[in-house]
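User: Hey, quick favor. My workstation is busy. Could you predict this chain's structure for me?
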Amino acid sequence: MKKTERNQLNYWPELKIEVDKILLQDPSVKEGKMFGYPAYYVNGKLAICHYDIGLALKLPAEIVQNLHNSL
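Assistant: No problem, here it is.
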């Protein structure tokens, strides 16, 4: 896929296919949208969304702080 095509979509469809294979095996994970982008919800709460060539993870503040402190 050309870069300009990917930028028009603002997410990488090939990555979504692979992530779907992993995440959607779990019945607690539901596919949805976040601001028009593909996203995954766990128990009704946003957990992961696609954006550009990667993924954004929504983590609890304590985990984020622990990750930040470990750098």
